[in-house]
Amino acid sequence: MDVCVKKRVQTLGGYVNIEQTFLDKVESRLGKQNSVFASIGAAFWIFPTLIIWQLAYSYNPNFGPVMLLFSGALIGLVVRFSGKGLKRLFSLLAFFTYSWIVVLALSLNIIIGSTISGAILFGLFAVGAGLTIYLARNEVPFDEHMAHTYLTSMNSHVSDKKLKNRWFIAFPILIVTSAFMSYVAIFAFTIFEDYQYQEGEYKFAQKQRLVSHNKEIDITPRSLEKRDSKEILRYAYAYHVGLLFNRKATFSEPFPRSEYKAKTILEYLVNNRNNARAKFILGLLNEGTKTRSLFQEAARQGDKYAQIYSAIEYGCYTDPDMAIEMLGKLSQVSSEKYVQSEIESILYVGIEEVCSELDEPKFLYEYVSNYDEYPG
Question: Which of 6, 53, 156, 235 has the fewest CB atoms within 10 Å, measured from its CB?
Answer without folding.
Answer: 156
